[in-house]
Amino acid sequence: xxxxxxxxxxxxxxxxxxxxxxxxxxxxxxxxxxxxxxxxxxxxxxxxxxxxxxxxxxxxxxxxxxxxxxxxxxxxxxxxxxxxxxxxxxxxxxxxxxxxxxxxxxxxxxxxxxxxxxxxxxxxxxxxxxxxxxxxxxxxxxxxxxxxxxxxxxxxxxxxxxxxxxxxxxxxxxxxxxxxxxxxxxxxxxxxxxxxxxxxxxxxxxxxxxxxxxxxxxxxxxxxxxxxxxxxxxxxxxxxxxxxxxxxxxxxxxxxxxxxxxxxxxxxxxxxxxxxxxxxxxxxxxxxxxxxxxx
Length: 295
Hints:
By secondary structure, this protein is α/β, with parallel strands linked by helices. It has two domains: 2-234, 2-enoyl-CoA Hydratase, Chain A, domain 1, CATH 3.90.226; 237-285, Lyase 2-enoyl-coa Hydratase, Chain  A, domain 2, CATH 1.10.12.
């Protein structure tokens, strides 16, 4: 059960969704809504009144969720979005400042580093988990919210999407929560430098032009836009999909083409020895969708 942490409550599908389809389940938490539907987790940041800003409860819930994916074979794809009109406005500064005001002394270096790392752990877990993550971005994706979007494998945005590295506008350095790792690799050093050193927003159309998002859709069209990506990934074999994300992650920082090809060769041999390979070939020849054994 996913509610071992005490953060999540499992609700039977019929009670929570009003559907007869027993493949659908919904997990409900205060900061997160998690719906599992036949191999796909649809995860919603659920603090719309605060633009889904990251408070301690949401940070803990995100860490717990993505940590739980590491050995999870029932979830093959994750779709991440925000409730309301924003994706995520970053750290909840009102909560952070109120907490600091109630302290007799500023937090020490160790406590501050622990707090910092708790947020950074989320994006590292997102990259380590074997499931591809599709981020659906509407409205603000600022600071830590931008980092969450960058840590996804695919980003789709609405026309209202505005993303920035807000940290440098707050008296901090512009590099935080993995943004200085992700941005140069996604958009190149020049655009990354512009965004990190100025904190300026990048809108949806420019994000599309520089390759930061895969497509831009009208407001309310994110869920429908994600479906072709989800369907294509669900057509891949489970082991093939996991190994593909792993290989992409390693190729980004590989020291040579030879190292990348060695990883690709290893993955193809592993996949070709699985039962899924035979099913994939049969389905291709029979012009039907493959039916893979879940593992």
